[in-house]
Amino acid sequence: MSVEGATRMASWEAPIDRQVGALEKELIAVRRHLHMYPEPSGHEQETSRYLRDRLEAAGIEARLLRDGLGVIGDYDLGCVNDATPRIALRADIDALRIQDAKQSAYASKRPGLCHACGHDAHATMLLGAAMAASEMQREGNLPDDEFGVRLRFLFQPAEEESLGARWLVEQGAVDDVDAILAQHVDPERTLGTVGIRYGVLTANCDEVEMIVEGSGGHAARPHHTRDPISAAAHLVSSLYQFLPRSVDARDPVVFTVGKIVGGTLSNVIPDRVEIRGSLRTLQAETRTLVHDRIEEIVHGVKEASGTTIHLRFPTSIDGVNNDRRCTAALEAASREVLGDEAIQPVDLPSMGAEDFAAYLARVPGAMLRLGCAPPGFVAPFLHAPDFDVDERVLAIGTRILLRSALLLANGSGTFSGGAGI
Q: By CB distance 3.0 to 4.6 Å, which of 71, 358, 372, 417 could disulfide with 155?
């Protein structure tokens, strides 16, 4: 951004910080409420109503989405017109089917459900950005009569099942959006740092389902059967052995089986075994090659075992490929909030998946990694039963989101410390 633009943008920093600072205790209370009452993917109706009500209480027009899953809120901050860019800010809201192992007062009150991936923090930071924007506008003393942004707040269900972003796209959530931004808490980074990556951030991810069908019988007479458990064991072993040797070792591929179900008794060979896993790749060509190789291995095991094996890829999501312009806005906002020393380049993509990619197929966007581990403390990893965040991250993330949206809507030239825009 130009020197003049940077100076004008700087005049917004104090009002943003003042509003977010005033909200900090409320943000912690919101996050703890969401943490105590988690809902799994596809069942987030109560969470959605809570967030809708909080948006409306802040004077923001909001609506529930299909089946009561997810919320969209729109709000104009500053001086806007029909040509002002509309910037979407997205947070996921679903929890995991994991038993919360924490002993804190705000531990999950719902057995077998836990916000172990930080989605409660994501939703809180997005709500915080909405509340701060509304309060700034209500006060009416905005620092610049030409700066502004049309904001869209997307509270998305079912990220953990890679479905929610597609649902929102289907419902037009980004049809009139110019760009989309998001952040994900990162327990491998210390509070007060951010991970920034230009380009590919996450892997392509394909769910793999294999149903092995044979003919069951008595465990003492396997020669009377076509044993699907034996075939399944051989299939998993073959995939683990041969897939890594099918591609260049310098090109990351991760195949993992996470579920095998078959049989009821120790002395009965069953008719059927279900195998579910995931395949993660970075390159489109590699993805195709490995799909073909899985089919070849499945065919070989089927022929050798005499079973029938049904292979399919039920869900597939592309990797997140961060847009350069949007990433530059996130980096510049992070520098303003935390300082130059807080910026940590992400050298390699994650092999994890993120359905944020579904939005990026429609509009440019980017995601950053937001450090949430207390200084000097190794935080539990994502999806761990004792996962938690340093709650000071809530104000930090809220400030970065609002700044990023304003920068993106009003930027021209080059962001300080970032790439061209």
A: 71
Residue scoring higher pLDDT (204 or 374): 204
List pLDDT tens digits, range 186-217. 999 999 999 999 999 999 999 999 999 999 99
pLDDT digits (tens, 9 = 90+) for 220-262: 999 999 999 999 999 999 999 999 999 999 999 999 999 999 9
Handedness of CA 95, 96, 99, 100 (dihedral sign): negative
Instruction: Extract the tokens encoding 211.
Output: 């149903």
Please name which of 10, 28, 129, 55 lies closest in space to residue 398, comparing C-alpha atoms. Answer: 129
How much is the pTM?
A: 0.91
| CA–CA dist 301, 213 (Å, integer) | 12
Q: d(Cα 412, Cα 418) in Å, to the nearest integer?
A: 12
Please give the Cα distance from 310 to 276 (Å, whole number).
Answer: 12
Please state whether beta strands 61-64 and 71-78 pair in parallel, antiparallel, or not at all (unpaired): antiparallel
- Answer yes or no: is pLDDT of 420 > 70: no
238 backbone dihedrals φ, ψ, rounded to 5°: -65, -40
Q: Which residue has the tokens 């490995």?
A: 290
CA distances from 221 to 43, 94, 216, 301, 316 (A): 46, 47, 10, 21, 41
User: What gap in Å lies between CA 2 and CA 413, rounded to an integer?
Assistant: 6
Residue at 26: amino acid letter: E
Task: Give residue 42's region: left, alpha or beta (phi > 0; psi -120 to 50).
Answer: left
